[in-house]
What we know:
The protein folds into 3 domains: 3-30 and 168-264, 3-Layer(bba) Sandwich (Glucose Oxidase, domain 1), CATH 3.50.30.10; 45-153, Enzyme I, Chain A, domain 2, CATH 1.10.274.10; 275-584, Phosphoenolpyruvate-binding domains (TIM Barrel, Alpha-Beta Barrel). The chain is built from 24 helices and 16 strands. The protein has helices at 3-8, 48-75, 82-92, 95-108, 112-128, 133-137, 139-153, 177-182, 201-209, 245-265, 292-298, 310-314, 322-336, 371-377, 379-393, 408-428, 445-449, 451-455, 465-473, 491-507, 521-530, 542-549, 554-564, 570-584; strands at residues 12-15, 17-20, 23-30, 168-172, 188-193, 213-215, 229-233, 238-241, 282-287, 303-308, 340-344, 398-402, 437-442, 460-463, 511-513, 534-538. Strands 1-8-7-3-4-5-6-2 form an 8-stranded mixed sheet. An 8-stranded parallel β-barrel has the order 9-10-11-12-13-14-15-16, surrounded by 7 helices. Strand 5, helix 9 and strand 6 form a beta-alpha-beta unit. The two termini are 33 Å apart. Residues 1-5 and 590-597 have low confidence and may be disordered. Bound molecules: phosphoenolpyruvate (PEP) and magnesium ion. Magnesium ion is lined by residues 403, 443, 464, 466-467.
Amino acid sequence: MTNLAKSDQKNLRLCGIAASPGIVIAEVYLLDRQRVAVIEYQVGADAVDSEIELFENAVSQAKEQLIAVKENLSQKSLREHFYIIDTQLMILDDQMLHEATINLIKNKGLNASGALKRVLQQFRQTFDSIEDEYLRERGSDIEIAGERILRNIGGKEQPCISNLEQRSVVVAHDLSPADTLQLDKKKAVAFITDLGGRTSHTAILARSLEIPAVIGLENVTSRVYHGAVAIVDGCSGCIIINPCEKTIDQYLAKKKRYELYRQKLQEYCELPAQTSDGKQVSLKANIEFPGEAELAIHNGASGIGLLRTEFMYIARQQAPSEEDQFLEYSRIIQEVAPHSVTIRTLDVGGDKFVPNICLDDEANPAMGLRSVRLSLREMKLFRAQIRAILRASALGDVRILFPMISGVAEVRACRTIVNEVMDELKTEGVDFDPELDVGIMIETPSAVLVADLLASEVDFFSVGSNDLIQYCLAVDRGNEHVAYLYEPYHPAILRALFRVATAAELANIPACICGELASDPIYSALLIAMGYSELSMNSSGISRVKKLLRQWHSEDGKRLLESLLQLDTAAGVASAVAVEMKKYSPDFEPNVDFNLN
Ligand code: PEP
Ligand code: MG
């Protein structure tokens, strides 16, 4: 499809997954990691030398860029990837490539990029005719090197999202959490992607950064072009490309309604979190970067229920030192005091790939060496983090949380390290809180099944419903193709959550939840009925949950839960909940954030 064909369609409406609410109208910045549009034309004899110079400078620049990437890789101890760059450097030095391009400029009077493009096409044809598959595939290495030279000739930046020139809707095949962290919120006002699911870490980050986003659109990158106007409706999960004036007006009105609604919710920030019959609930915030702590308290959080420490690792070239971590944790603890901060140990792997820490050759990373498994193998990293957390615990109310626990042995292994580090600090005369609570995330089916055994090993549970749903239902949380199967109201999930709360109650430890489910107002009432005393969520969801809980009677919650546990399908549960909610909270609209029509 050519750009022209793409641009012809007015009001092209595409629907995906509503990942982060908000409405934005802006021009598209298409993050195309490979192709450069090349126009071939004749240059005059007097311009031949300058075109050759342009080509040669672009090759030298490409080499410098690759050497810089190589240096960066060596800092990250990723030496095994050097060969990819070395291959590219060899291609840039290839005599045939040089001679053929320069000959076309000299003899045919072509411009530099037109000449290079022709040479690249000839190479492609030659490689395509090779029988050996491996050698045939090497043709793409030449294309990649060629694209780099072409970008340099055109003075185009190598694709990058951290320095956009104007307010843009970033359109990409996929964005990693690391890409998302680089987005400049003032310029990247929304993003849309082909891939992704609602609880992927990229989606979670978009909500934290309050960047409206629609993901899982499957083929949006092939349907839009640079500079097209796009409406992104992160409330409903739809986007409109090349909207007509009438559509723009409709969405401007919707944007106003959305902003008014968010403003009204602010009134709830200050009010106590309790049901209509006075049952107190602790609503806390999940945060991904230190800067969010203050905002969380402003949004009415009574503490940090989940500090995702991995984003400190993603944002740096190297793992943060013990001292770096201690300083970051200390700052957050002081900002949040007198409330508590639950610090989760490193939870990388799966879609949170961190190049200098995670293995990059795992066939099934979601079930691989990730999270606490990685920590227990990388003892130096693990001990440094625990030392930092323990030292920070001297400054306020701190809890430590271990992710992805699958059984009692892992908890004991973690506790042994905590005890050893405590002994070490004691010997060194360093302050820490010897009574700090140690908790685990319940996010694997095995942890649910042995919740009774785990409960006697720890001080609290925190359910990670994002992963728990993924692993219980065998549905990749980041895969748009199976997003329809990611059903929080699946009877298996209701039962699993109830089972965990019951095990916690019997062992007399608090049951908390920190997955995205906690921010669903309907679900929050059910969780409280199950016995969860602390719900931790993206802080922008707190006032919405508070609003609903204040209209809800806890006894009615228990009755509803009992009836839902008898139902056999997710759809049956969802519709029963919606009917009941309407009765008790007449102004309640299901998923109001995401459906402000
Ligand atoms: C979860 O899995 O629910 C959770 C809170 O952890 P994360 O989203 O960081 O995996
Ligand atoms: Mg998780």
